[in-house]
Amino acid sequence: MALYRSPSYSPLQHRTNDTAILDATVARLVERGWQAERTLEPDVEAGRIPAAELFVNMCQGPLASERLAPIEADGALIVNRPSSVLACHRHRLVRRMAGSDLAFPRTLIVHTRGAPPPEQELAASFGAGARVWIKRGDVHAERPEDVVSVPRGEIAAALAAFAARGISWAAVQEHVPGPVIKFYGVADGRFFRYYGAQEGSAASPPVDEGKLRELAFAAARMLELEIFGGDVAVPAPDRPVLIDINDWPSFAPFREAAADAIAGYIHERAGHG
Description:
Strand content: 15-25%
Structural class: alpha/beta
Shape: globular
Number of helices: 9
CATH class of the largest domain: Alpha Beta
Strand order of the largest sheet: 2-1-3-4
CATH topology of the largest domain: Rossmann fold
CATH architecture of the largest domain: 3-Layer(aba) Sandwich
Number of strands: 12
């Protein structure tokens, strides 16, 4: 059973790309002998979940994951697990990272309708940094204004803008200097690709690939993610810092190779129970 992500969680060009990677993965599973059915995240949210031996899951919202949780608890094979999807929601991700030794920016989770953090707390958390990032505190960005960089003096206005759009919680995050690298992976290591966010898929800023890979897979293991992607900032080539990780990205620059790897991984997972 292929569970397709709601369009609300696939902003802009990601809507087509998210559908395309799941389509390609399902096609390769069919080639391996699987029979495939498809359903959409709103159907999952409504509890319309047909029985299946395998669930290939791109649902990202909290309600769909809650609907799938009993199926996961019963031992069904779900890739990615709903518990892992929920762990990627930013307010949970920040808590997980704060309790780990992984390189991750200092981050405060705040209520958007409350008072912004006092300057004393900001100074303790972020030092003298002039700017911070404000990110919605639940799912990853649905639209460009869900992740914004602002001067520290404009935090209150940024939080009010989030509140006006119905977003109750936000992450106030330290700015990590340096270029940003996007990465994509499959849990057993058979697939790992990365590129510079500014350079595009053909290039990357200088980075220690071993340390980048180690950080990405360590974060995925901590969240029990099997199909994952994310972003790191690179203040120095040997010091990547994780700034985001999420369940099942679009893999758009590497779709065909990624679909082969993901389908192979899922097929083998199913064969080994």
